[in-house]
Design brief:
Blueprint lengths: L2 H15 L3 H14 L4 E2 L2 H4 L6 E5 L5 H8 L4 E5 L3 H6 L6 E4 L5 H9 L3 E6 L4 H7 L6 E6 L15 H11 L4 E5 L14 H21 L3 E4 L2 E3 L2
Parallel strand pairs: 1-6, 2-3, 2-7, 3-4, 4-5, 5-6, 7-8
Antiparallel strand pairs: 8-9
Length: 228
């Protein structure tokens, strides 16, 4: 996704959520600094991993049931908070998309075991960037939700789940299957405001709907094909 296409959505999110783009930029610079000695990759490492079909794993309370009943197909792209639960269900992601929150140790272990991990810096996570990002010693792609610079990438998206969808779209997946997505019922996380999470999920729904509307891809949610 070109940033000129993403920027209007990004600025609307910042306005709605009260985010400061300058803080996103500062956190992104921190990410670049702490990853100087890491195994940093670029688009050439991502592209071969994304096939015609991609299964994107969200972190709703129904993820395990969805995996058991629907199964996964093609490239498996997991949002950060879904990684440990996917591994426990016997599914190893091909790609992880994370902003370093949630159950972080399975994400670190997956990356250090060779799973390509897209790490996003934003204005709310500079402390996690400083403390956690250096622990990811496997292949990583540094990302920002603001204007990309240097080796930073921006594939679009706001939450881990819809960023994973944007990544699948960016790299040519023709069929995108969503498991573990629930835009109405935020999965409870300690210390998180459920109302803020609902607003984030509303943006995630909109972003995924935009991808569906602007492409000719097939989308499946919990095994059911959806249309615009």
């Amino acid at each position: 996704m070109k940033f000129c296409d993403w920027e209007p959505v990004y600025l609307s999110i910042c306005s709605d959520m009260g985010y400061d783009p300058l803080l996103d930029d500062m956190s992104a610079r921190t990410l670049l600094a702490v990853l100087q000695n890491s195994d940093v990759r670029d688009d050439d490492s991502v592209a071969p991993l994304v096939g015609r079909t991609a299964t994107v794993l969200g972190a709703s309370r129904g993820l395990e049931e969805d995996i058991a009943s629907k199964g996964v197909e093609g490239t498996v792209i997991a949002s950060g908070s879904a990684v440990g639960r996917a591994l426990a269900a016997g599914v190893r992601p091909d790609i992880v998309v994370t902003d370093l929150d949630g159950d972080i140790q399975p994400q670190i272990d997956a990356c250090n075991g060779g799973v390509l991990t897209v790490i996003l810096a934003h204005g709310d996570n500079p402390d996690l960037v400083r403390t956690c990002a250096p622990l990811f010693r496997g292949p990583v792609v540094p990302a920002t939700q603001g204007r990309p610079f240097g080796i930073l990438r921006n594939y679009g998206g706001f939450t881990d789940g819809d960023r994973a969808v944007c990544l699948a779209d960016e790299f040519g997946a023709e069929e995108i299957r969503l498991l573990g997505f629930d835009f109405e019922d935020p999965y409870p996380k300690e210390g998180r405001d459920p109302e803020v999470k609902k607003r984030k999920l509303a943006w995630a729904r909109r972003i995924i709907s935009d991808v569906l509307r602007q492409s000719n891809k097939s989308f499946y949610v919990d095994g059911v094909r959806v249309s615009e």
